[in-house]
Amino acid sequence: MIPRAVRKPLAILVAVLALVVVVPVLGAGGFLLWLRQQTPAYEGAATVPGIEGPVEILRDRNAVPHIFAATERDAYFALGYVHAQDRLWQMETMRRSGAGRLAELVGTRFGDWALRLDRSMRTLGVYRRAEEAYEELSPEARTAFDAYAAGVNAWMATRREALPIEFQLLRHTPEPWRPADSLVWGKLMALQLSGDSRDELFRASALKSLTPEQMRDLFPDSDPTAPVTLAAALDGMNLQGALAALPDLGFDTASNEWALTGARSATGKPIIANDPHLGLEAPILWYLARIVTPEHRIAGATIPGVPLHILGHNGRVAWGFTTTHSDTQDLFIEKLDPQDLGRYLTPDGSAAFETRQETIRIAGQPDETLTVRETRHGPVLTTPDAADAAPEGHVLALAFPGLDAADTTAEALYRLNHAADAAAVREALFLHVAPQQNVVYADTAGTLGFLSPALVPVRRGGDGRVPVPGWTGEHDWIGYIPFDALPQAVDPPSGQFVNANNAVVGPGYPYALATEWPDPARAERIVQLLGDGPHTVEEVAAQQMDELSLPARDLLPLMLEPLRSVPDLNGQAHAALDRLAGWDGRMDRDRPEPLIFSWWERELVRRVFADELGPLFQSYWDLRPRALRRVLTQAPQWCDDRTTPAREDCTAMLASSLKSALAEIERRHGTDMNGWRWGAEHKAALNHRLLGRVPLLGSMFDLSIPTGGGAFTVNRGTTRVRDPQEPFSHVHGPGLRAVYDMADLGNSRFSIATGQSGNPLSPHWGDLVQGWRDGAGLRLAGDRGTLARDGATLLTLSPTRPGSSP
């Protein structure tokens, strides 16, 4: 997955190359023929080095590979082979992002974005930690990663098709795959899903100019303003510089999971629903696959580049993840030793930095050498992008368990893939380090469990919400929450577990897990849908598609009531208010009301908060129903625009923001309100981030489709409202959905947002888009004969020397 900061510049680069080099040389016809030559061989036979015995790969009508192998090692080899066939470019950008090696591919001719990302990754030592994680693997897990890498390399060495177009446009030949290339993805995810260090910097910035009461208004229902003693050194921090030093890997996710015990299920056995939410693109991050060996069976969602199933079932247990949003990162302000600036101060005196040199290759330019320092807390954010992030005489260090050398998260996932029952799931998750996840799991015997595994720091003092002094020791980590004390339960009396990133513990929990939690609206809606009765698998799958917004239902009356007596609203405004008064809060793609309400809410947030927050507003700008509710019911002073001499009230703000919203909708969609549609703006952004901008041909790479839902619906459709051009483009959401039937795991359903192939001319590039949008699901089951009768293709891999070992 390409980090969001990387996508736009690299897309521009590819478009320029295609326009200047490729299209004039080949012509449109030659270009299309060139693409067709990339279609991988799904049928026939291939002789490959590194495999022990024959493997049959049956791809069903949706191109999902069902891998039948005599040994688990050969099955992992085959998974690497099919991943490389279908998604090699995705794999290449993932490993280069984590290794800090993008600049050597694209240089700086079109901006220094790749170089800045490389500096961040080298500073954090992400790939080094991936290499160290390989050393922590058990022999069995190491065999899986080794075999997978061999499979990727076997395809690259024996392929008959051309390399994917992205490689050819950049005239790049991929290097052999290494096991650490697979492990680096977990590091990237750990950073993305634990990004509270950025929140620390925002809070520190805001607390400089806002009162505790104002902070409480900005973040209702959390406690971001409990007494905090800011280090005096914060006064000299360049917080924007510090943000520049931290990698921006996109949304920190929001996901859904719920599970029913057998008593709440029509089948008499548990049912699990799970849909992780990440950035949308084409191809989607996820890749469905099934493995069948005499000793091991597993089906579900993989990530190209990784040999293990991230989410799925193994015929005995099934599991799902959501992100906990706990605080597992701290920024420490380290004081340099005034007698020796090459050292820093600790409670025990002066200490030497651990240092190393990182050489970053830059295409078309000399190499850059970066000196990286680490303190007892973690890597120092002292790249050129953040040279003045800390006050003079200080540096900023990041503490995060996911950057520790002894990270056994990959081993935990390997053991989870092989767990025989619910007890074995818990044993496997004991090894999970980062990011903290809420794992719901069940076994075929009927046990249902919930556990939030990770290393979560216990602090000597403070709560981790702002950067803290590192030289005093008063905020040091003194350990981690004991595994047995982490949030967990088995077979709940209510018959259900529900999590949609809402709080997993209450105020009585004895440890500090988080100081604030995401909006609980999705979880509240799931609880409503479940009620008290039993449910079928089909009903649970339908619940994943629910598009009712509880925050819209809650906030809308507060927005409508003050405007009923406003005299200067025009006819269009009154028509909009009449429509909204009869709206049920469903974010239906074919209705105008969600569009009107969302644009009105976007404008209201801007008008209410932008003047007080100033430069910080861009970081805060989002749909903020809880904050708006607080303003309209308890804190109307925010409605006064500080940039004008007049004193505005909330009625004036509501009226002006409605007028502004309607004017913008009219400009974009005409004056006929009957023709307005939420889906006209809210389209799932399923486009190829690179090839989608190729002149004349870009549309063939775009799979975008109108969708329903919104940021607070179960069928989540998150937008980036601060985007001036496409504020309601559906850029983040459930790229994968899964429902597990523990009474018949072959009846489990899966859906991904695009298709299995990364080749835009493959029939499987976007064949799953409409079904995903409309709630269809695939079953990953069947023996060889059944799959063949249903039209599966067969590719047989055979060793170069039958019976030989690699």
UniProtKB/TrEMBL annotation:
EC numbers: 3.5.1.-
Cofactor annotation comment: Binds 1 Ca(2+) ion per dimer.
Metal-binding as UniProt keyword: yes
Residues at the active site: 255 (nucleophile)
Keywords from the UniProt entry: Calcium, Hydrolase, Metal-binding, Plasmid, Zymogen
KW Transferase (keyword) present: no
Annotated residues for binding of Ca(2+): 200, 327, 330
GO biological process, any: antibiotic biosynthetic process
GO molecular function, one term: metal ion binding
Cofactor(s) needed for function: Ca(2+)
Pfam families per the UniProt record, alphabetical: Penicil_amidase
InterPro entries named among the record's database cross-references: Ntn_hydrolases_N, Pen/GL7ACA/AHL_acylase, Penicillin_amidase_A-knob, Penicillin_amidase_dom1, Penicillin_amidase_N_B-knob, S45
Record-stated family: Belongs to the peptidase S45 family.
Protein name: Penicillin acylase family protein
Organism the protein comes from: Azospirillum brasilense
UniProt lineage: Bacteria, Pseudomonadati, Pseudomonadota, Alphaproteobacteria, Rhodospirillales
